[in-house]
Amino acid sequence: MKILSDKILSQSAFSAEIDVPFEKIDIAEWLFNLPEAEYLRCCPPDHIAAGTTTTDDGRRMSINVEMIGTGLVVQHYVADEATPFYCKMNSISDVFTAVGRTQVNVIWELIAEPIEGGRTRYTNRVTSHPTDVFMDFIKQHGQTFEQAAAARQGAGGVHNRRETPLFAASIGRKALSK
Fold first, then answer.
1. Helical H runs in the chain?
2. Domains in the chain, number
3. 3-state SS assignment for residue 81
4. Do residues 32 and 52 make contact, with C-beta atoms less than 8 angstroms apart?
5. Which CATH number characterizes residue 166's domain?
6. Is residue 3 one of the residues assigned to a domain?
7. Domain that holds residue 32
8. Has this prediction a pTM greater than 0.90?
9. Which residues of 35-71 are buried (b: 16+ CB within 10 A; e: fewer)?
10. pLDDT of residue 178
11. At 168, is the pLDDT very low, low, confident or very high (cuts 50, 70, 90)?
């Protein structure tokens, strides 16, 4: 399978403020110790399941199962970078639709930045790229890339807008519980 990184299927970024000092935030700690029930609370009813594991070579992974629009998506996020203030997660995601299964590449960035008043801004950035498997899939189903991208952009943007403030609140609660 080949990732077509020169094409963007969808991209969105939303931010929310956390009433916790930046120095107390640890996004990697939150992400890799996130209880499944807390993940479910971060975008009901879209979030279905979550867990953590590792790749064969020991890199940390977050597995997320969620509905994005009408597609059931199984994210296999591998940590490219995982620090207290920035995580870059990279997934070859399985997408199950009414007409079959395909795969896309999803880059999920979780970003914390200090802001005035001893607070933190959390940004949730999600970028999807098609794979050659995805391009074959949409072609087989009579859909253009532009049509597929418009549908994914709409559904992904709505999902990200809903989950970002809930992720931020959860990261804040985790920081205050230490």
1. 27-32, 36-41, 132-140, 145-176
2. 1
3. strand
4. yes
5. 3.30.530.20
6. no
7. 10-176
8. yes
9. eeebbbebbeebbbebeeeeeeeeebbbebbbbbeeb
10. 80
11. very high
